[in-house]
Amino acid sequence: MRVLYTLQRTIKYYILKFVRLRGNPQGLAMGVAIGVFIGISPTMPLHTIAIIGFTLLMRVSTVAALISATIVSNPLTLVPLYYLCWLTGNFVLPGRLTWGRIEEVLHVLANQGFMDSLRAVSHLGIDAIAVMLTGGFLLGLPAALLSYFFSYYFFMAIRRKRQQKHLLN
Length: 169
Fold this sequence. Notes:
This protein has one domain (about 25-169). It is about 85% helix and about 0% strand. It has 7 helices and no strands. The protein has helices spanning about 1-20, 25-40, 45-60, 60-70, 80-90, 100-110, 115-169.
């Protein structure tokens, strides 16, 4: 029961963060879409840099993108997201990164030293990158499109509510 209460508070917290954002709905929604797309991509160390670069380039809300990327890609969702990226990428590029290869690397990581672990991960190389990025792109594109439209209508509703409140005062 406590977990449900905490989850409910977290959801309210992030909704409030979005409600407090200022700007035009198109820019805010595009920021959310960029954040969701990059948040789903398996490029964890580069998320913030990529988000800031793309949002500044496209002149959309950087804060909305960072918030949405945090919601999508966090310690609770990281493993399922990477697994889905692997499944999707492996479906499109079959046989390049099998579960057997991943198990071998995980075994080396758990039981060997640092240099052996580094060698094992480097042997996955370009195949792992291709599979994971392909899967991330294929998952991220529809998620970004959906998040754009949902967040656009969300921000438009907030704008209408603010305008009505302003007219009443």
